[in-house]
Structure formats: C-alpha cells, structure tokens
Amino acid sequence: xxxxxxxxxxxxxxxxxxxxxxxxxxxxxxxxxxxxxxxxxxxxxxxxxxxxxxxxxxxxxxxxxxxxxxxxxxxxxxxxxxxxx
Length: 85
Prior knowledge:
Blueprint: H1 7-13, H2 18-38, H3 47-63, H4 67-81
Helix pairs in contact: 3-4
C-alpha cells in the first residue's frame, strides 16, 4: 500500500501488466522529482511556466491513479493561473 496511490485501479488501467505499471511508476517518480525541485521557489515571473509544469504533473498523477497528488497539482495550477500561490 502506498498512501494516495490506488494500486489496484492503476494496475487495472494498465491491463494487469505489473511490469509495465511498475515501469510507469518509476518513470513518474524520477521525472516528477526533478520537476518538483524546479518548483520550490515560485515567483510571479515564472507563474505561467509553473502552471504548465503542475498541469503536467496533474495529468501524469491522474494517469497512474495517484489522485491525491493530481488534485494537489490541480489546486496549484489554478492558484498559479489566478496569479498567486
């Protein structure tokens, strides 16, 4: 069990192929870690790029059934688009 990740639903989404799902999870982890580093210090000047980045994280998270992460990324995206975080 991994908090915030619906493993059963994710595995179903990938047709029960455990190896493929695990590979996708690793890719998400590796790629997202780098993206999160770039988001640590948001400024008004980078808000458009910030919104694009968290939009991508949102989609990727929802795609692997990490809905809690996807929901948080969506909230950050909306805040960035509104001009503040």
